[in-house]
Specification:
Helix content is 76%, strand content 0%. With 314 residues, it is mainly alpha-helical. GO terms for molecular function: soluble NSF attachment protein activity; syntaxin binding.
Length: 314
């Protein structure tokens, strides 16, 4: 079966070569027909699992579409070539071709397709290169934002924010979260603004910037419905506990369902948040013996939390 498909592909390539030849009566190559034959060859190679040859055929197809000024079809062919590189586990090279395709989509006047291509590239590279994935998601979000497709833009910004937290690029994560919050406010999705504020506060506290965390909460009071909400009350308790170096209060807030069921990257920030002073829990007002036991247990809990996330965010 594979051999049959390979022979079929080679026949299509031979036909493509004929379409590209010129003669006394044929002055210009037939780029459109050649591109069609290369596309058929690529599919045949792909079905035979000859991914390297399929990639080359797609690149030839793209080249001929470019020569024919058919940018959209050229971009599609570059994307397909990128997917062949993915099958070959050459992800950086695959992303490079998909980025090239996205530029062609933009040049062709199809920005939505460009943005979706960048998002696909981000998904491909996310487990290999976080920084590149962040860049691709931000680029995609920017394209959607320029097209006033804010819901799609903010979804991609959210992906970028979470990856920035995972990579411990907390200053950039804070700025990205602020941009998310601004968009959610613009589209009047106020409850999600509250959740983004919680994430932002956790990021600021991990940056050891209590002032920025407090300012973040104060600014959110201007968003309708925030004052008196469960998010507002929890954040006030969190900041109070952090300011007073009360690890018990901070841990209680961060272990509440409101914090635990956030996106995983932010939930981890809460679970491993330690107040200044080493994060030793305050002794409860009990007998000296009980207090010692409580203190030991608390210290053990903090150590367990630290150990759980020592290889991750914390």
């Amino acid at each position: 079966m594979a051999a049959q498909k390979i022979n079929e592909a080679l026949e299509h390539i031979a036909k493509a070569d004929k379409y590209l030849k010129t003669s006394f009566l044929k002055w210009k190559p037939d780029y459109d027909s050649a591109a069609s034959e290369y596309a058929k060859a690529a599919v045949a190679f792909k079905n035979a699992k000859q991914f390297d040859q399929a990639k080359e055929a797609y690149l030839k197809e793209a080249e001929n579409h470019e020569n024919n000024k058919a940018l959209f079809h050229a971009a599609k062919a570059y994307e397909q070539a990128g997917m062949m590189l993915k099958e070959m586990h050459k992800l950086p090279e695959a992303v490079q071709l998909i980025e090239k395709a996205s530029m062609m989509y933009l040049e062709n006047g199809t920005p939505d397709t460009a943005a979706m291509a960048l998002e696909r590239a981000g998904k491909l590279i996310e487990n290999v290169n976080l920084e590149k994935a962040v860049h691709l998601y931000q680029q995609s979000a920017s394209v959607f934002e320029n097209e006033e497709r804010l819901r799609q833009a903010v979804e991609l910004l959210g992906k970028a924010s979470r990856l920035l937290v995972r990579a411990r690029r907390l200053d950039e994560a804070s700025a990205s979260l602020q941009k998310e919050k601004n968009i959610f406010r613009e589209i009047e999705n106020y409850p999600t603004c509250y959740k983004k504020t919680i994430a932002q506060v956790l990021v600021h506290l991990h940056r050891n910037d209590f002032v920025a965390a407090e300012k973040c909460v104060r600014e959110t009071y201007s968003i309708p419905g925030f004052s008196g909400s469960e998010d507002c009350i929890a954040l006030e308790q969190l900041l109070e506990g952090y300011d007073q170096q009360d690890q018990d209060q901070v841990s209680d807030v961060c272990c509440s369902p409101l914090f635990k069921y956030m996106d995983n990257d932010y939930a981890k920030l809460g679970l491993c948040l330690v107040v200044p002073g080493g994060g030793i829990k305050k002794k409860s007002p009990a007998s000296p013996q009980d207090g010692t036991e409580n203190s030991t247990a608390a210290g053990s809990q903090v150590e367990d939390d630290d150990d759980e996330y020592s290889r991750g965010l914390c």
